[in-house]
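Hello,

Our lab assistant flagged a job as stuck in the queue for most of the afternoon. It eventually completed. Since we weren't sure the result was trustworthy after the delay, we are filing this so someone can double-check. Below is the sequence as submitted and the structure that was eventually returned. Let us know if re-running is recommended.
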Amino acid sequence: MTSLNELAWNEIEKTIANADSLGIIIDRSLGGTFRLDAGISARGGLEAGLAMARISMSGLGWPCLEMTPINKTPSPWVTVHSDHPYEGCFLSQSANWQVEMNQFHAMGSGPACLLNHDLKIEKNPENPETANFAVLVLESAMLPEDSVCQELAQKCGVKPDHLAVIAAPTSSLAGSVQVAARSLETGLHKLHTLGFDLRKITSGMGRCPVAIPTGNDLKSLGKTNDMVIFGSQIWLSTSGVPDNELADWALRIPAVTSPSYGENFLQTLKAAGGFYAIDPGLFAPAEVTLVNIDSGGISHAGAIDWARLTKALGV
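-- returned structure --
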């Protein structure tokens, strides 16, 4: 397979070509880094969020929007599917880079994380990531200044003008959409922490409600996590796993299995005393279906928590 960063760079070029219609502002740092603003000063919107999601998945996942009522109120959801979920949704889309440079703070995802050898993260042993380009998706209320871009490029081992970053705050519409596009990624991450071999997953689909922007990044952090924990669903096809084992895996995935499950995310965060004190098992879909394409077996567990989802969404 072509380098994930090379594939993501293709998505960056498509986004730049359609920036005006997407409501994205493009500029370049002094060192030549492409900086794409999808919701900081830019108008952004639904399509900008979908563009961020495609880029974060290196073009190996396809997000789209649908409308499903929540408590009889029409609400947007993001549906995503991929025939390369391990590469596109786990290796590429996972938010593995907590960027803290020169007073700049952001959560970074995208295939550039695989080029940063300082990060102790899962990498594909069969196809190590090497690239002349690097693409980073930032959840941030500001764009990185030139000195930060220079350091990011150095961490990735590329020239500054071969680095592209696209950013939106959590409280923007684009930011909410790109988080909702992480249903598959969240499910794969939970399976990985449980010890499942993700390369046995052949395809996947997922969907998640879009949190309404609040104008406040902390509140929106809570809302976007609530949507995933209480409302997201995933469907995964697998090969090489017996039906009885698959049924056991399914039962262990849903967020409801976590002892931290119950309150909305901000209340859980406050009670835990910090993000990393929360049980990592909470970060999981509400509902999961695993299918065995070798036997036709189906394993299902969990359910959308409509009561808590409705309360979290405020409808």
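-- support follow-up --
The delay was a queue issue, not a problem with the job. The result is valid. The two ends are 44 Å apart (CA to CA). The first strand starts at residue 25 and ends at 28.
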